[in-house]
Design brief:
The protein is 17% helix and 16% strand. The chain has 98 residues and is an alpha+beta fold. The protein has two domains: 1-65, no CATH class; 66-98, no CATH class. The longest helix is centred in the middle third of the chain and has 11 residues, at 44-54.
Length: 98
């Protein structure tokens, strides 16, 4: 599904896109825009997406992909920060994923 902006936790980009976008690629923006009536803030990932679109880049998400967070201290993989239960038990390893 094509979208306007994505979180950068798990992304794949063609290197050509980085060649078309002048650095600095990842900047947190917080500016005052009096003509728009206030402050606009933009996280690093959305700032990059804006610059990528300006350079002709397009991006999409695949909602079938489930991305987790690996706690290196315990080996537990978490898929939802609000969930008290890990998705992968370190004793089962990654093969325990469904």
């Amino acid at each position: 599904m094509e979208c306007n902006g994505i979180a950068m936790g798990c992304t794949l980009w063609r290197m050509e896109l980085f060649r078309r976008i002048p650095p600095t690629w990842f900047v947190t923006v917080s500016d005052w825009f009096p003509e728009q009536g206030g402050v606009a803030a933009m996280t690093q990932d959305l700032h990059f997406c804006r610059k990528a679109r300006e350079a002709g880049g397009r991006f999409a998400v695949d909602c079938r992909v489930k991305v987790g967070y690996l706690d290196p201290a315990t080996g537990i993989v978490y898929y939802e920060s609000a969930s008290p239960q890990p998705f992968v038990d370190p004793r089962e390893g990654l093969s325990g994923r469904s």
